[in-house]
DNA sequence: GAACGTGACTCAGAAAGTTCCCC
DNA sequence: TGGGGAACTTTCTGAGTCACGTT
């Protein structure tokens, strides 16, 4: 941890060289927080900023000096269903105990989803549900197929409908209540500065879904009690109160970590945390540091690439595997691919690829040495790609696959730990995931410079940006389900375009006529008419162009998620510099949340920034 | 020193909620 | 101008990465 802080301090100094105003962001944010909290306001001064900022730094792994918060916000307790909403077993109404009914409502609420029809889901749910039943209920309710949740389901559908149809005033009251809770629980004081918390609400109980074919889907996610929660805060400030009649599992004062509260979830036994919002200083610093590491890789990447290419011909199989794995991570932006527990969905990354996930083609579609990838990656998103590779890589892959079955590991001699150890030797701080950040940001910068032309309109520039962003999303395989309304909204848009074209044609005709009339008998009136018609044509043409751009953008974006790369992989300074250079308002690219998260970059970057 | 487990953090898409825009 | 739906934003929480300690 020490080395990180030393590195961060170095980083800040370097960045200060780059732009002496680099620390203004933090001072400005503090000033904003101070206003809210009626604390003495820090003044926006540039010369002292760096010093002021460094004063707050810790070099010994400490993340904060003081941390005060209200603890997590618990979900409301369960309330019985009205007696008019029956649960039926084998056609007969059965009055359920509180806990049994609560779990039944979790299932009933999900009936619309396709996954409740899956066997794993049903069986996991039923097993866990029976565990919360009373002895009598267990004796009676033996088959899920005999359970009728439809009345409960309809009840919640109706309630949702009612909520939707509330009057403006009723909705306003509800919003005020939410805002009040957010104000109370949604912020903490970190080193005296008000910071937004990311997830201050404890996860409510429900049924675990998981992504893809998760073996634990349908299991009961239990209600978290105060007795399960560890509070992390400073010793000398007010310690959060547990709900009345309860106590915390523990209160600790560990300032080497950034979380405010934690608990262990019951599905996998993993720890869950309450942490700060991405707009916070702590997260901002870490984000900045991430991009600086990726920038460092830029300076070293040629050497690293030469090295892993050499490894392709190494005598030791382990070295060859490392060389090829790194090549994939670098060229295809694959994730590292840690080993996973058996009780999770079967997904893989680079190091955990199995023989069955690739097919080798000596020739394919006019190309030589093609590797066809087909596997499920993070979140069970399919990765499918046909990539021509270098001959030596191809030969190595053949070698790695020799005498192996489809379910054997392709890279059986290496692990992510080993890979990262080697990477760290090549460049301190370098790990497999840095390649994703590096390649994503590099791609954005290249694409932006390729796609942006000075005389473009702002709309065209935005399309260019989206296209550059899209290139990165494709590289990183960031996919989304096509929006449910996609086809319909596309049709609407196409209809609009058709109509606009028609209008434009008509307007052109009218202009022609007006011009003719003006030529034949020029008067002030006819001249004005020509002007008016010219304006109309121009306006319609612009509108048409805008719609067509929209169509292209939407079509190209159908199954691609741009948000993930924008938020996590693209150095925001590239975007800010591009906006400044091409006079595109940064608000057109980043929404409010994104501007908050990237405030550090917005403040410190000028148009000359190069990743 | 390798295998394993744990902890802390980043990254991920879906769903819910809100705003905007057009008829 | 206001209602409806599309688009955008925010929230939610699951799924990864990676460091580190223990065996």
TrEMBL record:
GO cellular component: chromosome; nucleolus
Lineage: Eukaryota, Metazoa, Chordata, Craniata, Vertebrata
Transmembrane stretches, start-end: none
Enzyme Commission number(s) from the entry: 5.6.2.1
Coiled coil: 157-184, 490-557
DNA topoisomerase I eukaryotic-type domain mapped to chain residues: 207-583
Origin species: Electrophorus electricus (Electric eel)
Record's keyword terms, sorted: Coiled coil, DNA-binding, Isomerase, Topoisomerase
Pfam families in the cross-refs: Topo_C_assoc, Topoisom_I, Topoisom_I_N
Catalytic activity as recorded in UniProt: ATP-independent breakage of single-stranded DNA, followed by passage and rejoining
One record GO biological process: DNA topological change
Classification via PROSITE patterns: TOPO_IB_1 (PS00176), TOPO_IB_2 (PS52038)
Record keyword Coiled coil present: yes
PANTHER family with a match to the protein in the record: DNA TOPOISOMERASE I, DNA TOPOISOMERASE I, MITOCHONDRIAL
GO molecular function: DNA binding; DNA topoisomerase type I (single strand cut, ATP-independent) activity
Family according to the record: Belongs to the type IB topoisomerase family.
CDD domains per UniProt: Topo_IB_C (cd00659), Topoisomer_IB_N_htopoI_like (cd03488)
Functional summary from the UniProt entry: Releases the supercoiling and torsional tension of DNA introduced during the DNA replication and transcription by transiently cleaving and rejoining one strand of the DNA duplex. Introduces a single-strand break via transesterification at the specific target site 5'-[CT]CCTTp site in duplex DNA. The scissile phosphodiester is attacked by the catalytic tyrosine of the enzyme, resulting in the formation of a DNA-(3'-phosphotyrosyl)-enzyme intermediate and the expulsion of a 5'-OH DNA strand. The free DNA strand then undergoes passage around the unbroken strand thus removing DNA supercoils.
Active site: 569 (o-(3'-phospho-dna)-tyrosine intermediate)
Annotated protein name in UniProt: DNA topoisomerase I
């Amino acid at each position: 941890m020490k080395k990180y802080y030393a590195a961060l301090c170095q980083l800040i100094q370097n960045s200060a060289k780059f732009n002496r105003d680099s620390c203004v962001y933090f001072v400005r944010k503090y000033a904003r927080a101070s206003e809210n909290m009626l604390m003495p306001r820090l003044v926006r001064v540039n010369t002292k900023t760096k010093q002021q900022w460094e004063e707050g730094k810790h070099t010994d792994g400490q993340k904060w000096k003081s941390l005060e918060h209200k603890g997590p916000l618990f979900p409301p307790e369960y309330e019985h269903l009205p007696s008019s909403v029956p649960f039926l077993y084998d056609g007969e109404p059965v009055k359920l105990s509180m806990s049994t009914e609560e779990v039944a409502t979790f299932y009933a609420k999900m009936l619309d989803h396709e996954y409740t029809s899956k066997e794993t889901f049903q069986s996991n749910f039923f097993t866990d549900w029976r565990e919360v039943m009373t002895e009598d209920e267990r004796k009676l309710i033996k088959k899920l197929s005999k359970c009728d949740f439809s009345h409960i389901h309809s009840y919640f559908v109706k309630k949702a409908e009612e909520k939707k149809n509330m009057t403006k005033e009723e909705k306003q009251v509800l919003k005020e209540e939410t805002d009040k809770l957010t104000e109370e629980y949604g912020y903490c004081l970190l080193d005296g500065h008000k910071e937004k918390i990311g997830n201050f609400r404890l996860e409510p109980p429900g049924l675990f879904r998981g992504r893809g074919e998760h073996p634990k889907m349908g299991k009961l996610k239990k209600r978290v009690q105060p007795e399960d929660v560890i509070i992390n805060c400073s010793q000398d400030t007010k310690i959060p109160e547990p709900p009345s009649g309860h106590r915390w599992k523990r209160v600790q004062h560990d300032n080497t970590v950034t979380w405010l509260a934690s608990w262990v979830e019951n599905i996998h036994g993993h720890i869950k945390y309450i942490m700060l919002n991405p707009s916070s200083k702590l997260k901002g610093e870490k984000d900045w540091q991430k991009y600086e590491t990726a920038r460092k890789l830029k300076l070293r990447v040629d050497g690293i690439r030469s090295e892993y290419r050499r490894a392709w011909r190494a005598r030791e199989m382990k070295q060859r595997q490392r060389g090829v794995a790194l090549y994939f991570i670098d060229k295809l932006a694959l994730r590292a691919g840690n080993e996973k527990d058996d009780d999770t969905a079967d997904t893989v990354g680079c190091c955990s690829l199995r023989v069955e996930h690739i097919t080798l083609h000596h020739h394919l579609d006019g190309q030589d040495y093609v590797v066809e990838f087909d596997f499920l990656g993070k979140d069970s998103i399919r990765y499918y790609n046909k990539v021509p590779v270098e001959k030596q890589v191809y030969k190595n892959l053949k070698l790695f696959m020799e005498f192996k079955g489809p379910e054997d590991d392709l890279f059986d001699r290496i692990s992510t730990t080993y890979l990262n150890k080697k990477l760290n030797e090549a460049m301190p701080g370098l790990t497999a995931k840095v390649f994703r950040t590096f390649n994503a940001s590099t791609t954005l910068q290249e694409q932006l410079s390729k796609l942006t032309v000075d005389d473009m309109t702002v709309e065209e520039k935005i399309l260019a940006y989206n296209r550059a962003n899209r290139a990165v999303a494709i590289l990183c395989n960031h996919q989304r389900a096509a929006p449910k309304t996609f086809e319909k909204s596309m049709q609407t848009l196409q209809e609009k375009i058709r109509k606009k074209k028609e209008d434009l044609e008509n307007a052109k005709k009218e202009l022609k006529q007006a011009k003719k009339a003006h030529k034949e008998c020029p008067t002030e009136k006819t001249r004005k008419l020509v002007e008016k018609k010219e304006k109309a044509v121009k306006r319609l043409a612009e509108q048409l162009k805008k719609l067509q751009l929209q169509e292209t953008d939407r079509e190209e974006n159908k199954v691609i998620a741009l948000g993930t790369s924008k938020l996590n992989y693209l150095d925001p300074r590239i975007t800010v510099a591009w906006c400044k250079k091409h006079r595109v308002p940064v608000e057109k690219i980043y929404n409010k949340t994104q501007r908050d998260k990237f405030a550090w970059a917005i403040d410190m970057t000028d148009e000359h920034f190069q990743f």
